[in-house]
């Protein structure tokens, strides 16, 4: 039998659940577009980490290329030193040959007994011996110098060979590291996009994922929506992709690129399912709104306050999109149809776009 004493606990449990539901912020229940709150970073976090790893690997690769150039210059200087040492050794060997020939012509090669017999007087014998001694000393010095030069040449040749080997090894390791991270990142990006496509098809966002935020630059009131980008479709441009003119500025970036709010404000809309796919609208002071569309994930909830430069999502190609990019708008109302050209708007706030 069930214990009757446990039934009274149902009342406080229900009251607590009711209190939690009433305490939820209005934005957490969505805006009518199926937005849901969430805390699981999952694949989004993996993409963000790989994105940072890839950026770091690229920096290391570029730094390695600079170091490789410096290493190449050092190796080339070693090669030049080797060439000079080889020329010096050739000169030394020529000097040795001349000394040996001169010593032979001057009788330096005669044995001491023969020199004593052929000498006319002791002074001549001493002078001859002194000359022989000097010639022997010159030969020995030249031989020692030549041997030292040859040993130094061999050491420098080994050093130069090691420098080239280290250079090749470093370049290979950096290239493999960069390629491996980029491959993992590309796979994770498309997995993230698959999740986004499923959310858009269902018309219900997965909710905010909580990523580790980078330090924000509090000295600047406004920033670009992405750090590194290439501009694609501009405001007012025409084409078969839009029923009317293009209403924003497109930033061509890979899937999973962190998207940041251009300025401080409040999230007034997070939704999925329309032509913009996963989208965010943020209200700023002065009556302006910024719009971020075709996202793969969001990292904020509706009603949340955001700081300048804070990550609010990750770029993608959800909704009516022909490829990975961020569609960015500046509006005078939170709804579409009120967009103004975002480039001069940002430029007037100290954020040149180009």
Please give a structural write-up.
The chain has helices spanning 10-23, 42-105, 112-118, 122-202, 342-347; strands at 230-231, 249-252, 258-260, 265-274, 277-283, 289-298, 305-306, 311-315, 326-331, 339-340. Strands 1, 2, 3, 4, 5, 6, 7, 8, 9 and 10 form a ten-stranded antiparallel β-sheet that branches. Strand 9 and strand 10 (339-340) form a beta hairpin. Helix 2 (42-105) packs antiparallel against helix 4. Helices cover 49% and strands 14% of the residues. Residues 1-40 have low confidence and may be disordered. It is built from five helices and ten strands, in the order H-H-H-H-E-E-E-E-E-E-E-E-E-E-H. The chain is α+β, with helices and mostly antiparallel strands.
Brief description of this entry?
With 354 residues, this protein is an alpha+beta fold. It is built from five helices and ten strands, in the order H-H-H-H-E-E-E-E-E-E-E-E-E-E-H. The longest helix is centred in the middle third of the chain and has 81 residues.
Q: What are the salient characteristics of this protein?
A:
354 residues; alpha+beta; rod-shaped
């Amino acid at each position: 039998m069930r214990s009757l004493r446990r039934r009274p606990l149902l009342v406080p449990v229900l009251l607590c659940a009711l209190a939690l539901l009433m305490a939820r912020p209005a934005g957490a229940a969505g805006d009518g577009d199926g937005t849901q709150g969430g805390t699981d970073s999952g694949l989004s976090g993996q993409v963000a980490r790989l994105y940072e790893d890839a950026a770091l690997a690229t920096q290391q690769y570029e730094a390695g290329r600079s170091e490789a150039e410096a290493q190449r210059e050092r190796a080339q200087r070693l090669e030049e030193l080797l060439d000079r040492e080889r020329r010096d050794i050739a000169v030394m060997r020529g000097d040795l040959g001349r000394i040996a020939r001169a010593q032979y012509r001057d009788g330096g090669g005669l044995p001491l007994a023969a020199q004593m017999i052929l000498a006319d007087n002791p002074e001549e014998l001493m002078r001859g011996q002194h000359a022989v001694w000097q010639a022997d000393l010159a030969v020995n010095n030249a031989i020692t110098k030549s041997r030292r030069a040859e040993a130094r040449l061999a050491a420098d040749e080994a050093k130069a060979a090691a420098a080239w080997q280290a250079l090749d090894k470093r370049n290979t390791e950096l290239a493999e590291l960069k390629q491996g991270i980029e491959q993992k990142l590309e796979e994770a990006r498309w997995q993230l996009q698959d999740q986004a496509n499923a959310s858009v098809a269902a018309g219900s966002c997965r909710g905010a994922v909580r990523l580790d935020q980078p330090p924000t630059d509090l000295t600047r009131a406004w920033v670009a929506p992405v750090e590194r980008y290439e501009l694609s479709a501009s405001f007012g441009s025409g084409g078969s992709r839009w029923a009317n003119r293009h209403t924003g500025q497109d930033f061509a970036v890979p899937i999973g690129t962190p998207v940041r709010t251009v300025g401080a404000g409040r999230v007034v809309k997070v939704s999925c399912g329309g032509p913009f796919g996963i989208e965010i609208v943020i209200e700023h002071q002065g009556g302006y709104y910024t719009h971020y569309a075709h996202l793969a994930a969001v990292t904020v909830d509706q009603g949340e306050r955001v700081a300048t430069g804070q990550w609010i999502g990750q770029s993608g190609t959800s909704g009516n999109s022909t490829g990975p990019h961020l569609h960015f708008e500046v509006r005078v109302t939170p709804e579409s149809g009120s967009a103004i050209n975002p480039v001069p708007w940002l430029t007037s706030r100290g954020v040149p776009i180009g």
